[in-house]
Amino acid sequence: MKNKIAILTDSSSTIYTFNHDYDNIFMINLPCYIGDETFTDFDKHGDKYFYQALKISKLVPKTSQPSVGETLDMFNKIKSLGYTDIIYLPISKELSGTFLNGHASKEMVEGINVEIVDTKTTVSILGAMTVEAARLATLGKSVEEIVKKVMEISDNSTYYLVVNDLTSLVQNGRLSYAKYRIANLFKIKPLIILNEEGKLVSMENVRTYKSALRKAVSYALENLDPEHGEIHISYTDNVEDLEFVKEEILKIKPDVKYSVFTIPSTVAAHVGMSALGVAYINYKKE
Fold first, then answer.
1. Domain contains 273
2. What is the DSSP letter of 277?
3. Could you tell me if 276 and 233 are in contact, meaning their C-beta atoms sit under 8 angstroms apart?
4. Which of 41, 79, 249, 263 is buried deepest, with most CB atoms within 10 A?
5. In a 3-state reduction of DSSP, which class is residue 192?
6. Position 247 confidence tier, pLDDT thresholds 50, 70, 90
7. Residue 112 pairs with which residues in a beta bridge?
8. Residues 6+ apart with CB under 8 A from 108
9. For residues 28 and 187, what is the distance between their CA atoms, to the nearest angstrom?
10. What's the distance, Cα to Cα, between the start and end of the chain in Å?
11. Confidence bin at 176 (pLDDT 50/70/90)
């Protein structure tokens, strides 16, 4: 019997903002909370409801990984559709317990092979890996071939994040109040990188927000494969920042290929609404 391979990811990938026609892609929601209100079903509603609530709330938002039961239900749902294999591409295990919960669910499911990958990434890089995995599955590639190919994307892509308002980082304990006061006094903005271990870490501090955005653009374009790569921009509803970054990119490389996505709610919960990400995605030539 020929293998029928499903590709499963989570909402941190913003796969719901990708334009694709693959029916073998599935998604698990990573729930977000503001007070007693739960935000999920990002595949149906996108991020707009969470964004709206986050802008007006004074409460500290929380995030969670899907439960073992929810993940198991998804595995069984995919199995019921006649799939023989699942390649699960969750958010980096350094950022969430989603990867470990996937393994716990895998122990409970029968009748389908589940391959869980430490993607070492998230946001639109993870979305790009998911779409590429689905494409390769439709071409009849094996699980092993697909995993190898998508991890090449992870290894040859980097995400840079610039945060204008550092309040959310302080509220979530990712930045001390003392450093926050100093950063505000000197208008310092951290340039954050999703590193090769799959962790979001401060790469350098830059004076002014626009300078930090320019740095992110510069780093992304420097590392972009002009023939087999593309630029990703991720934003919330900060359209002016988005337009500024697009202009900066096109000023340097007018013919560059770029796509625009939203910052997923599970990331916006920790960095706030005044953040913007720039990534380069390099695909290996087949």
1. yes
2. E
3. yes
4. 263
5. strand
6. very high
7. none
8. 68, 72
9. 38
10. 27
11. very low
